[in-house]
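Design a sequence for this backbone.
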């Protein structure tokens, strides 16, 4: 399949040129429906508008037309990380400290393969999670298989859109 590290190396400068931070590059769908998923955000707002997605999609499509890094047919999906965003960079764990997350580990540690709780911070390459009555647990960043924020009222308040203008207007074509 596709080399994600090589794709990331190609895509990241394109995202940066538009003022975006790359959050994730991932191939989904297996061989039946391969989809290259690219998540990005504006560093100042942690959001990405539809116009931003379109601009990044066009830029990546133009680049891939030149270098053709994926041999087989695939679909390109460009999006914001969303409210229940994946935590893919060590900085994500620090940035979202105080919010609830679910962290899946590559291998069990202390009898646990999944940690669910409040992100309590980062120390070097180590992430600490407060799991309430189960106490705190610290794990190495490279031990994480995948992780994401959990939707809570606090997260919703922290990620309110920049503008809801037009959200109540329904447009009917025809």
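Sequence:
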């Amino acid at each position: 399949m596709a080399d994600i590290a090589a794709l990331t190396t190609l895509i990241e400068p394109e995202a940066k040129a538009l003022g975006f931070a790359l959050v994730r590059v991932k191939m989904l769908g297996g061989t039946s429906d391969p989809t290259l998923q690219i998540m990005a955000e504006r560093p100042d707002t942690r959001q990405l508008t539809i116009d931003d997605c379109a601009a990044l999609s066009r830029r990546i499509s133009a680049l891939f037309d030149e270098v053709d890094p994926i041999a087989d047919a695939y679909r390109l999906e460009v999006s914001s990380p969303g409210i229940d965003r994946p935590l893919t960079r060590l900085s994500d764990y620090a940035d979202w400290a105080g919010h609830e997350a679910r962290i899946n580990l590559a291998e069990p540690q202390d009898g646990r393969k999944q940690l669910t709780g409040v992100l309590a911070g980062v120390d070097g390459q180590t992430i600490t999670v407060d799991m309430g009555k189960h106490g705190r647990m610290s794990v190495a960043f490279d031990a994480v298989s995948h992780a994401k924020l959990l939707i809570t009222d606090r997260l919703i308040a922290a990620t309110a859109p920049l503008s809801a203008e037009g959200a109540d207007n329904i447009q009917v074509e025809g």
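The mean pLDDT is 91.
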